[in-house]
Task: inverse folding
């Protein structure tokens, strides 16, 4: 996945915001909470939040690993480094799921303010 594709997928999700931070990483948020990070200039590595079950399965797959910094702090985040077992379409699906998980963790008030009650 190219950085342009990553940004397009994340921008297509509801009520997202984009910032460049942490040494030039493309950081996508919903309700002020991070749901996706794209980093690397030569090769795009994408980190995303996932369920505990997905984390347990994905962390053992070639081309995927627990996301640096986030997973070491007990968070269920995976980083795709290569498309060896997760193609771009599957990655886009996981980005959508990451967005959904982060939205579900927002307060009811925040979800209501963003118009995301039914997400």
Result:
């Amino acid at each position: 996945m190219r950085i342009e594709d990553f940004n397009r997928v994340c921008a297509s999700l509801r009520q997202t915001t984009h910032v460049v931070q942490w040494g030039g990483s493309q950081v996508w948020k919903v309700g002020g909470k991070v749901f996706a990070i794209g980093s690397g200039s030569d090769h795009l590595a994408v980190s995303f939040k996932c369920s505990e079950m997905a984390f347990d399965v994905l962390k053992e797959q070639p081309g995927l690993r627990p996301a640096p910094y986030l997973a070491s702090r007990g968070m269920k985040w995976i980083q795709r480094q290569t498309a060896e077992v997760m193609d771009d379409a599957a990655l886009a699906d996981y980005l959508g799921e990451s967005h959904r998980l982060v939205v579900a963790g927002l307060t009811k008030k925040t979800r209501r303010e963003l118009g995301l009650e039914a997400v």
Q: What stands out?
A: Helices lie at 3-11, 52-58, 88-105, 108-114. The chain has one domain: 3-109. The longest strand covers residues 33-39. The mean pLDDT is 93.
